[in-house]
Design goal:
The protein is mainly beta. Helix content is about 10%, strand content about 35%.
Length: about 140
């Protein structure tokens, strides 16, 4: 048996993205992660990858922090999306390309744990002078 109920999926999403306690199962301890970090990737980091795996590496790029709270994320029916558009740093130098995948992780830099990952449709292009952006319609689904 491996399927989760929709109620549990939604509670899990609220716990991960909004730090809302899961009644009887989990509470956010003192010192818990307060931000989640969105990163862009040129390929799928995969199930065994970390936040650095295939991560975009142009000059000006950095992962973006989003508060782990209802102010940072909407969660409705086991789907999470950012409350405001996510803007990455403007590319000032480097090789142009496309971000084909995104990840949600635990660290602002380094080899943090990927909590969620997925393909971007359409991919987000980056080139000198461009500020890559994810819209609020970008969704993460627990299913």
């Amino acid at each position: 048996m491996s399927a989760k109920s929709k109620a549990f999926e939604n509670a899990l999403m609220k716990f991960v993205f909004q730090a809302v306690d899961m009644e009887g199962l989990a509470t956010s301890p003192v010192g818990a992660v307060t931000n989640l970090w969105i990163g862009l990737h040129t390929a799928d980091p995969g199930e065994t990858g970390n936040q650095n795996t295939s991560e975009v590496a142009y000059t000006g790029y950095a992962r973006v922090a989003i508060a782990r709270s209802p102010a940072g994320w909407n969660v409705v029916q086991n789907v999470a999306n950012p409350v405001v558009p996510v803007e990455f740093g403007e590319m000032t130098a480097g090789t142009a390309g496309n971000a084909t995948h995104a990840s949600i992780g635990t660290l602002g830099n380094g080899t943090g744990m990927v909590l969620y990952r997925g393909a971007l449709t359409p991919p987000i292009p980056f080139s000198v002078g461009v500020t890559p952006r994810m819209r609020t319609t970008t969704t993460i689904t627990e299913d």
